[in-house]
Design a protein that fits this description.
Layout (H helix, E strand, L loop, with lengths): L23 E6 L3 H4 L4 H4 L4 H5 L2 H14 L2 E7 L10 H5 L37 E4 L10 H8 L3 E7 L1 H14 L3 E10 L3 H12 L7 E3 L1 H9 L1
Helix pairs in contact: 4-9
């Protein structure tokens, strides 16, 4: 029997063996109001909100398919303590990062417990789905995500969310270093500019599988439903 795989670029996913939903995770990275809602952190920085919101629909459809197929669906959320004690010093010093903790229409930007820090309504976790609150870019360094995936026997991960050039690719590299077979879903990620978005995905595409693969939500949903 031919192993079931999701079509991918430059290679199908998973690279090793066939797709096993019970051993595959879907990571929904940082779909928070501060990153893609009016009045949030990114919007206040002047970033293109339309671009950042474009993946919402495809992610919703993929999450629904993943739940039906029995994947481990997990959500990440970037945020910092109210006193910013866990904000990296170099971040606090940068001009862009001065906005972290600043007051806005959705509360203090990226501060845990504020409205902007929480998930957009369209992609709220379902009951029982874990949320990994991270004080940084990658989803593994400051959470128990790696241990939890290992305990479940998860060997492959499908990545979605924001932003393609930062938290998604940071999490991708962490996952690869932990031995996970990875695919980033192109229409389920976004960056604040087309140039940075394309650069992030082109690096994956050109690496011959060393940085995992790129896929599309329609192909992924169809394969999960097969």
């Amino acid at each position: 029997m031919t192993a079931r795989k999701i079509p991918g670029d430059p290679l199908p996913f998973p690279q090793r063996g066939g797709l096993d939903p019970a051993r595959t995770a879907l990571l929904v990275i940082d779909m928070q109001r501060d990153f893609c809602a009016a009045g949030g952190y990114m919007h206040r920085l002047g970033r293109d909100l339309e671009r950042l919101r474009a993946p919402i629909g495809p992610i919703r459809r993929l999450v629904d398919a993943a739940r039906r197929a029995g994947l481990f669906v997990a959500h990440t959320r970037e945020g910092y303590a109210p006193d910013l004690s866990d904000l990296q010093p170099w971040k606090a010093a940068g001009p862009v990062h001065e906005a972290i903790g600043g007051e806005g229409p959705l509360g203090r930007a990226l501060v845990r417990g504020e409205r902007g820090w929480d998930f957009i309504d369209e992609l709220a976790p379902a009951p029982g789905e874990p949320v990994y609150d991270k004080a940084g870019y990658g989803a593994f360094a400051t959470t128990t995500l790696g241990d939890d995936l290992a305990e479940r026997g998860v060997g492959a991960a499908i990545l979605t969310g924001l932003t393609a050039d930062c938290c998604v690719t940071s999490t991708l590299r962490e996952a690869l270093d932990r031995g996970l077979d990875c695919m980033v879903i192109e229409d389920c990620v976004a960056a604040a500019s087309a140039r940075r978005h394309d650069a992030a995905l082109d690096l994956i595409r050109a690496a011959g599988g060393a940085f995992g693969a790129l896929g599309r939500s329609d192909d992924t949903i169809a394969t999960l439903a097969a």
